Amino acid sequence: MLYIQATGEVDGFNLEAWARDQREKEEVTPATRGYIYDRNEMVLAQDINVYRLYAIVDADFSPDPNKRLNHVADPATTAEQIAPIIGMEASEVQQILEEGAADDRFQVEFGREGTNLTREQKLQIEALDLPGVHFIEEAKRYYPNGIFASHVIGLAQTNDDQLIEGITGIEAQLDDILTGTDGAVTALEDSYNDPLVNEEIRVLEKADGFNVQLTLDQKVQTILEDALSQVETEFNPKRVTATVVNPKTGEVLAMGSRPSYNPNDLGNVTNWYNDIVSTPIEPGSTMKIFTLASAIEEGVYNPNETYQSGTYKIPEITRPVPDYRKHWGTITYAEGFQRSSNVAMAKLVWEKIGPDRFLDYLKAFQFDQLTGIDLPRETMGRLVYRYPIEQLNAAFGQGSTVTPIQIVKAATAIANKGQMMKPYIIQSITDPNTGEVIKENTPTVAGEPISEATAEEVLQAMEDVVTEETGTANGIFELPSYTLAGKTGTAQISGGASGYLYGRENYIFSFIGMAPSEDPELLMYVTVQQPELEVTESGSKPVSYIFNHVMENALHYQNIQPDKDQTATVNQLVMPMAVGLKTADVSEKLTSQGVRVTVIGDGETVIASNKTASETILSTDHVMLVTEHPKMPDLTGWSLREVVQLSDLLELDHEIVGQGYLEKQSIEPGTEVTKGDYVLFDFTDFEPVTPESDSEAAEGTND
Q1: In angstroms, rounded to a whole number, what is the distance separating the alpha carbons of residues 645 and 289?
Q2: Nearest of 480, 577, 561 to residue 518 by alpha carbon
Q3: Candidates 2.60.40.420, 3.40.710.10, 3.40.50.880, 3.20.20.140; correct CATH number of 218-557?
Q4: 30-68 pLDDT tens trace
Q5: Collapsing DSSP states into helix, strand and coil, what is residue 572?
Q6: 285 tagged catalytic
Q7: What's the CATH number of domain 572-684, 3.30.750.24, 3.30.10.20, 2.40.440.10, 3.40.190.120?
Q8: Omega prior to 259 cis, within 30 of 0
Q9: Across the strands, what pairs with 440?
Q10: What's the whole-model pTM score?
Q11: Between the CA atoms of 48, 49, 50 and 51, what dihedral angle is there, to the nearest 10 degrees?
Q12: Which of 229, 260, 285, 309 is catalytic?
């Protein structure tokens, strides 16, 4: 004993170091994964706290059970009370507790049912005051908007090491910078986890992950998602894609596709890929705008020159190139473009531009390379251009393939005076620990395949496709407030070795449009593959619903001045002063302009609103007015975004379950609420509202 006391060692084993290791307890301070925001700093992805349940079953942890129980002494009662809260059978919980004690284990956990518990479940169990029952707080990735640019933002989940890890999308691409570094607090404790007095506490500061701000605009993306969901429900297409960009900068304002998934509740995911950047398609007639641009740039295009439509045969091919309708007769090239004539485009390439020179233009529009967009898994299409028939087919978008983002990038040259912009979606990356901007993207000119004069002439020809009676988009694609330049597309789908699929639904229907047509501020490309159509419906109907609805609303939201005289269906308004004024006066003023208003409470004065004075709003917006002594309104049928907006406005501690539209709320309508009150919002599945009937395509206008 004297030797041990003097040396602190036994057989070379340092007892002092061993004792310190036994007493030293380290409590990890978890770093927060970086947030993902839209361009206006609306949260698109964040961490939330969830809880893991465990129970101490070692009786030795209760040295004086008559004074205080620190372990589960009554497994049957404990199991009976916690089982219904975590969704297990009481017998199953009791078995876990009793087997853990019999095996001399210190503590037990409860499998999948005992993890990812909500704060409400934790509070319910804590209220039971059960000895030995404890929680470990953990982080879980949460996406406030549910199905919202899901293929872009991606998915991050907790791995086997209880760390959040990016799996797809930007979450995976930027996983290394979104992931922070945990901190720790180290102290000496006794065997009952009580700290030893006069002992040093060591603190290692955590470093949160970097925040990422996207070019996406939550408002525009929301409009797009609603339109995509509507078309998915009504037409049940195999695939849908839609992209909205600022053609002057290359910024992606909205990007969505179907089928998609809810990252908060995955279910059966049928497509993990972002088709807009990862899935090449034959573009069909939308490619004709680049054929036309090439001919104009070469100086060989005369819109008034005539040709014989129907079919086009050269000695080098066995079967002639056909138009989809063969009764137009002799028409001008201008009318041929409006009618989407394959023959017109084939003749331009073979007789006017020349196949070799046309290939130069296809490469100038960079259809032979990646766009360089800052999204993962980008692929590119393939130019099939070896034989004469392939060269003719390329003129009208058949044979060769491109991705939707390649089409969008090339089309920015048409909308942006000949300058082609590189598309990008990451606006900036910021270190939240210091506030330093680590990276910031700016517009980049990717090339100038055509001149400004050529771009203007192509824009005019595309506007004629919409306005002229012979145009394939006439009466189908139309914006109430803005002039529009566009081009329809109907692309065949390869069936493999058997060739192309046939049948009126077995196509990829598409539209690329720019508005206002004289100087486009927004560019949008929509594709809908194999929709289920009624006998009287054209393939353009689902495409036009998405395009018309999103483009009209997005232009208003972007504060773009309408260039049509007729009254817009969506009005752009300036939010009046509300805070401090009489509730009735503010509500009446907004309601008279068609705005949906919800008054929260029955006070006479407005004390807060979700819209600020002088802010530009749309007549379709939902304005919330909070009065003194606010009361919880009936939120049944509200969208997730509206509910979160209300909760943030009232500074409530909210929790979300499910998706779609609100079905239940834990605070009854009419109950007075105060800052920090806890409320659970329970959502049900999405039930879309049937849109108003769109203009039907006249017979024979599909290209």
Answers
A1: 43
A2: 561
A3: 3.40.710.10
A4: 889 999 999 999 999 999 889 999 999 999 898 888 888
A5: strand
A6: yes
A7: 3.30.10.20
A8: yes
A9: 428
A10: 0.77
A11: 170
A12: 285
